[in-house]
Design brief:
Blueprint (H helix, E strand, L loop, with lengths): L1 H30 L16 H10 L1 H5 L40 E2 H24 L3 H17 L7 E5 L2 H6 L13 E4 L6 H18 L4 H20 L4 H4 L13 H15 L2 H8 L20 H14 L10 H17 L24 H20 L4 E3 L2 E3 L1 H15 L24 H4 L11 H5 L29 H4 L3 H15 L10
Antiparallel strand pairs: 1-2, 2-3, 4-5
Helix pairs in contact: 2-19, 4-5, 4-7, 4-19, 5-7, 7-8, 7-10, 8-10, 10-11, 10-12, 12-13, 12-14, 14-15, 14-19, 15-19
Family: Belongs to the glycosyl hydrolase 9 (cellulase E) family.
Keywords: Carbohydrate metabolism, Cellulose degradation, Glycosidase, Hydrolase, Polysaccharide degradation, Signal
GO molecular function: cellulase activity
Amino acid sequence: MANCVRCCCWLLVLMLMALAITAAVVFVRYKNGEGVFPFPGVPGAVDHKYADALAVALQFFQVQKSGKLVNNTIHWRGDSALDDGKEAGIDLSKGMYDAGDHMKFGFPMAFTATMLSWSVLEYGDAMRAADQRDSAMDALNWIMDYLVNAHPSDDVLYIQVGDPKADHKCWERPERMKEKRPVTKITPKSPGSDVAAETAAAMAAASLVYKPINKTYSSSLLDHGERLFAFADKHRGSYTRTFPELSAFYNSTTYQDELLWAASWLYHATGNHSYLAYATGKNKDFADLGNPRYFSWDDKRAGTEVLLSRVSFFASQGSDVAQDDVLGMYKQTADAVMCILLPDSETAAFRTEGGLLYVAEWNSLQHPVASAFLAAVYSDYMQSSGKTELSCSGQGFSPADLRNFAKSQADYLLGSNPMKISYLVGYGDRYPEKVHHRGASIPEDVDTGCDGHKWLETSKPNPNVATGALVGGPYKNDSFVDERDNVMQNEATTYNSALVAGLLSALVSTSSLARSLS
């Protein structure tokens, strides 16, 4: 008995010593300006709600894969589109289908890769703690292999596989497709600065992800990124102006924001100040600084402002970068973006009675999820740099306020909403059962040919669960109709999955961010 008491005493002493050491480390890190987010419990502790949701969300990338599948974990999926790109003499079989269709749209797919990379760069340790980093890397690698093949020479980029009008007329499983799948490319005579620059951003961001683990691949990605940026900048034009028939699908409002976005990522990837000067020099007008915007696959300005604010937050005091007035304007605009997101700010944007930031009726969850990701990132930039107050028209807000907003949007989509439904398929007890998704809606042993519309029109739940799909989301009154033909609310997109994966990764744990992405 005495031995037992002595053991317990020693255990208590060791625990107290460990706590003391932890407190000392935290104090030193805070004193040195590294900052630690104030949270209950052990630093870096995993929030299992968000970790479980992240594990679900990342599965949708497996659902969306094209090509010869490797280690396939989705029993109702198989090899598909193996001849994509063959007519052009290149292999475009990999990549991911865009949504509930079988199109490969390069513009949103590249954005998906950029966002996956950003999430891994900022929150890779949190992903690893949740045992999900490998899943994120698998998805990223599958897309990057496609994008590399899509850029066979300096001034050529293949931006699409499939005919969207023909594709959307068919309702069939991807494994059974027999229709022609034409490819579309941009060249100096047929420009597409927006998609080329977004692909350059994806290459640059991914090069940073792979730099510590595969320097050769990282260098190759960066080389592609720099050449694509030069192509995008030299031969300016929007791809939906070049191919107006594509404006009905992913219409790009301007290419200018993608040029700034790509330059910002290339600056982080190379350290070359010419890329920073590109964004802060004569091209700064592209950013419309002073006017906060929402972040999306089409508008990268808010993302660029947050990404360049990272430079300001962690710049050495007195350095040229710290004293750059234009860079300061980027940060001021990023501050304004954060202010419209905070519900208690005087400039707060509209949200539903259930608390969802509401910007657009179609795919209504895109903007709140993208905004919540930026808010979580900005909160961590503030806390990690020791700059812990955000001023909104004289009101003071903390990193915790931004994080609480991010959590509120995540909680809403996970089921804390008036409909009591999780908009992340496969998470929780109740989620959409009739997702607008061809592969999920047709039994795996059925060959419908192009005309499988009876599976679109049936009132029965999908026979296959599109696990991880983040559907479009609710209407302005928080209502949601779970019907397969309700494309506005019930179709999932691959880029939405990248956004929600980033948000959930940011919320998995609380810890300081690295001062540099490189």
